[in-house]
Each structure stands twice: as structure tokens, then as C-alpha cells.
């Protein structure tokens, strides 16, 4: 399937993997790239040596283009941004902030720059700053989210920009891809579906939560801290949501008990203290499969629908 995104990134399918902090390591990224999409390694708040090692391991596993996601709230963001240049990464996506100050150097190094944005205003700023494309990410997404839905956000961003738009949030099958294209997107970003892939290295408890989740099993916590995050409902996320609602947790206490909670979910599968970040579409993800089979199934369904 050829779109402006496959042309821009030199990949077979217009599918970018979400830059999921702690989740998106080199095994997943290489598998997605080898399957014809664009795999991403998440910088998250990792130390520079960890990310360098992950990038080099990914290069050993694939000769296809892959990318790095820079989480802009990371205290290491400056160093990780430079590392992408030093390691000759093909694509950078960014989240949780405005990457404008990094864009000239990335472009100079030949990196394709794709900020993830939750609003039209930020999308316009990114186009003016020289971005090659944007990911318009709806509130259905897992992790740190904005308020607008994919259905509302994507066409408005498409109308406002000249550069291509990639839709994200709630896309896990061919119907989601076809719908995104109807909204004017030229590609999709998929996160939650890849949590339930064979190559994804998350704790088995996390995969089980995704596969067993039903439509109402996601919850947004942390609006009152200014960093709303979508999680799978667990004892821990319900405690956070209740604490926020009834005032039994102050924002400071909330921040304290969520510090390090991504690692506890992804690495330890800790249901009592871990934040299992996940999109609202988890209810539709019912089976663990290899990335190649996931992408093939999604794209075959999308192509059939788009030909009707
Ligand atoms: O970034 C994401 N998703 C994420 S990041 C993350 S790690 C984290 N953990 C706790 C708190 C915060 C982050 C987990 N999931 N998606 C892309 C995204 N970007 N969503 C929202 C934004 C965003 C928000 C504000 C982008 C730009 C922005 O700009 C504000 C400004 O500086 O103007």
C-alpha cells in the first residue's frame, strides 16, 4: 500500500508502532520493521547507554528503517535527541511536549521527524517548525493523552496541515485503518495491538490483561496532576482513580506512588503497584500473534474495505 507515509519513510505499509515507554524495546521494533511497518524504540526516561545499546541491537536484527520515540518530559531528552543523530536513526517521533528546539538538528542529520500531537494548535506549530509529518493522537490511546477523540482530531488536523497526518488512538484492525484513511490520514500509529504480539517483551501478566480486557476496562487517571494517562483497570489504577475523585490522594501523593509504576507493570507484572498503560481498544485485542501476522491481517482487511 503506497501513501505519502510509505514514500516518506521507505516502508511497505503505512503503519508506525507506538513509542510505548518501557514496552517498545529493540525486539518489538525490529519485528515491526521486518514486517514492513516502522518499529520504534522508546527512549522514555532511559539512560543514554541503554538507548544506544537498544538501537545497535535493533540494527543487528533488521536492515529496514526503524525509529526512536523521544519522551520530551524525560530529564535525558537532550542527550537522547543527540544520540539519534549520532546513531543515524531513520525516524524520530516525540511525545509529551513540544520538540521544536530539536527539529533543525534532526533535519540536518536527515532524520524524518514526526511529532505526536493531541491538538490542531500543536500540529500547526510542528508543521511551521519543519516536521515531516505528525501523528494526531486521540484520547483513545494508551498512556499520556489529550482530550480530543481520534474521530474529531484527525480530520481537523488534516484540514489544517499540508504535511501528511498519521492517525492514532483506537486503531487495532483493518476497519480502524480504513476509517483513518477516510478521515484523511495517510498512515496509522498502532500501539495496543502490538502489546499482544509474540515479540513484545512485556511481562506475561500485562499481555493477559490486554487479551482479557473488555470494552469498559480502561480508565484515565491523573487528570488533576496535568498528566492524564490511560491504563487498564486494575486494583492499583482503580485506587488512583478513586483517590483522585474523592480527594483521598493529593496530586503530590499520586505522583509519588506512580513514580516508577510503568516499570513495575512492564517488567514485574506487579498488579498492586504497576501502571499498565493501554489504549481503549484493548477490548478488541484477543489473541497474541507475531507482528508479521498482525500487520498482514490488518492491512489485508483495510485494503479490502478501501476497494469497496
Ligand atoms: O506521549 C504520549 N504518550 C505517553 S508518554 C508516556 S510517559 C509519561 N508518563 C507519565 C507522565 C507523562 C508521560 C506515556 N504515554 N503520547 C503523545 C502525546 N503527546 N500525548 C500528549 C502529548 C503532548 C502533550 C503536550 C504533546 C505536546 C504537548 O505540548 C505541550 C507544550 O509544550 O506545548
Overview features:
308 residues, alpha/beta, TIM Barrel, 2 domains, eight-stranded parallel beta sheet, three-stranded antiparallel beta sheet
Summarize the structure.
The chain has helices at 4-9, 26-34, 48-61, 77-86, 103-108, 120-128, 150-160, 174-182, 192-195, 204-212, 235-246, 251-258, 261-266, 291-307; strands at 15-17, 39-42, 66-71, 91-95, 112-117, 134-137, 143-144, 165-168, 187-190, 218-221, 229-232.
Tell me about this structure.
It is a single chain. By secondary structure, the protein is an alpha/beta fold. The protein folds into two domains: 4-200 and 287-306, Aldolase class I (TIM Barrel); 214-277, no CATH class. It contains 14 helices and eleven strands. The strands form two sheets. The chain has an eight-stranded parallel beta sheet with strand order 1-9-8-6-5-4-3-2. α8 crosses α14 (291-307). The protein is globular, with a radius of gyration of 18 Å. The structure holds ligand TUI. Ligand TUI is lined by residues 21, 71, 73, 95-98, 116-118, 122, 137, 143-146, 227, 229, 277.
Question: Secondary-structure blueprint of this entry?
Answer:
Elements: H1 4-9, E1 15-17, H2 26-34, E2 39-42, H3 48-61, E3 66-71, H4 77-86, E4 91-95, H5 103-108, E5 112-117, H6 120-128, E6 134-137, E7 143-144, H7 150-160, E8 165-168, H8 174-182, E9 187-190, H9 192-195, H10 204-212, E10 218-221, E11 229-232, H11 235-246, H12 251-258, H13 261-266, H14 291-307
Parallel strand pairs: 1-9, 2-3, 3-4, 4-5, 5-6, 6-8, 8-9
Antiparallel strand pairs: 7-11, 10-11
Helix pairs in contact: 2-3, 8-14
The chain binds ligand TUI.
